[in-house]
Amino acid sequence: MSAPARRAAMLVAIVAALAIGAAFLKRSDVYLLTLTMVYLMATFGLNLTVGYAGQMSLGQAAFFGIGAYVAAIALKAGVPFLAVMPIAAVACFVIGLALGFPALRVQHHYLAFATLGFNVLVYLILRNEEQVTGGTYGISAIPRPTILGVSFEGHLAYFHFTLASLVALGALLWWLLRSPWGRAFAALRDNPIRAESLGVNITAYTLLAFAIGAACAGVGGVYYASLVEFIEPGPFHFSTSLMMLLAVIIGGSGRFYGPVVGTIIIILLPELLRGSSHEALKFMQKWYLVFFGLAVVALMVWLPGGIVSLADRFRRRSTS
Amino acid sequence: MTATPSLLDVKDIRKAYGAIRAVDGVSFSVRPGEIVGVIGPNGSGKTTLFNSILGQIRPTSGSVEFSGEDITGMSPLELARRGIGRTFQTLQVFGGLSVRDNLIAAAQEFSGTMPGRLFAKPDAGLGQRADEMIELFRLKHVAHLPAGSLSYGQQKLIDIAMAFMAAPRLVLLDEPCAGVNPGLVDQLRELLVQLNRTQGGSFVVIEHNMGFIMRLCPHVICMVEGKVLAEGKPAAVQSNPAVLEAYLGN
């Protein structure tokens, strides 16, 4: 069996195990898994912007929030879920395009602050425009989808629906990154001056990197709103953008599975530790943040390519 | 009999930084299929001239015509689309991409439309061309390794191969031999001669390696203090007393 076929088989097995195994989990654990997958939609998009196209962004939570609020308002107004998803994705794509313009002028930490400013702006709008967003009271009773007469109201049904959607989004991004566009994004990241001299339209690809990444976060926001059924501005604060960026970097920026590993570590692991009643984990519950902080520092020093790059390191060692 | 029309016409290019004239009224032409060498001591304005031609900087005055079209001040992207390739003085490869992907990336943007490329094959139909270039530049054993992980010499070869991948009509090479070992210099010269024969492209080469320039270029321009000091056949330029004085002093 070839390496790509082996990887595909492993992926199918993991997805199948998740789909079947969820039925045997507690309701709260299924919720956590669904939440992790929802955040993964956003970090997948951020990985395209940051990891593949090399554009710094600290505004991903803003798009996550825009998607969530678009979904909350539209779903409560009776717009079908299948229509809400593209509306939120297109809205975030267009705003993402606009946010990409500063990236044409500034890079690195300057761009990070420009995007962070955007996140703060969106957060303030969500908090202060009470008539539309509900302000700090938020929007409650957000319905879960019913598609072609099939209800995804139940926690397990919604988990399966989110899992299927995540696989579809992942497949779409995989195809995009394997296309010539993916190579152009990498060229933009590695050497924009050379890329331009070879005909790569760096303006278009920079804007697209932001827009596609933003659209993914918007889709994640739609699923988030339906999952939690109540939204308020808090989860869309720029600290969430930092957390998403950390997930991408810890997992492996510019690696397809990097955000998967990173998001599990950032979202799922702390919650599992917090919720665990196992004696051995009690100690970790108290000291988790300390260990986590130290682990991040160590990782950035010794494994700057992220956890996924460990596989390369072992492969190089075994061939040398 | 009419003379072959020029591919590139550089007319009275000037570039000043305040009172300093980095390029001071340089004119020359390149005919289709011709290889022109540009030599000169450090600081003589060669790279500034290149950057003025290639849209990296805007010249203070003068014009550049390519196939009769005024291309003065056009962006590198617009020049690339017209069939003008270049290499830079320093290494410029895509370090995170494999050697093969570097070569494909160097040409993929010249075929089809941008939306069309999204639905194109992953290798953009350039796999065979990339493999030919890999074979020509003797990079087969490293073709699937990230370019950034290779030696300086190997990256230099990739850098140059990328400039030729889309078969441009004109390539401007800025010090292709810089930092390259003598064995590779000969290999580079042979490759450029072969590419000139097979692709029929025109080259302008900036270089400090005299042996390389003298054997590669039938026409040589010597620049000093932003001006053309001498031009003509390599032997004539090399033995020109003004050129000798510029390099060696009185």
Estimated share of beta-strand residues of chain A: under 5%
**What overall form of chain B do the CA principal axes indicate?**
globular
Any guess at the CATH architecture of the largest domain in chain B?
3-Layer(aba) Sandwich
**Helix residue percentage of chain A:** over 70%
What structural class do helix, strand and pairing data of chain A support? mainly alpha
Widest sheet, order of strands of chain B: 6-7-8-3-9-10
Q: Give the averaged pLDDT of chain A, no decimals.
A: 93
| Biggest pleated sheet of chain A | 2 strands, antiparallel
**Overall number of structural domains of chain A:** 1
The number of strands of chain A is 2
CATH topology-level name of the largest domain in chain B: Rossmann fold
How far apart, in Å, are the first and last alpha carbons of chain A? 24 Å
- Tally of individual helices of chain A: 14
Order of helices and strands of chain A: HHHHHHEEHHHHHHHH
DSSP E strands of chain B, number: 10
The gist of it:
The complex is a heterodimer of chains A (320) and B (250). With 320 residues, chain A is mostly helical. Helices cover 77% and strands 1% of the residues of chain A.
Tags for this entry?
heterodimer, A: mainly alpha, ABC transporter involved in vitamin B12 uptake, BtuC, 77% helix, B: 250 residues, alpha/beta, Rossmann fold, 2 domains, four-stranded antiparallel β-sheet, 10 helices, 10 strands, 35% helix
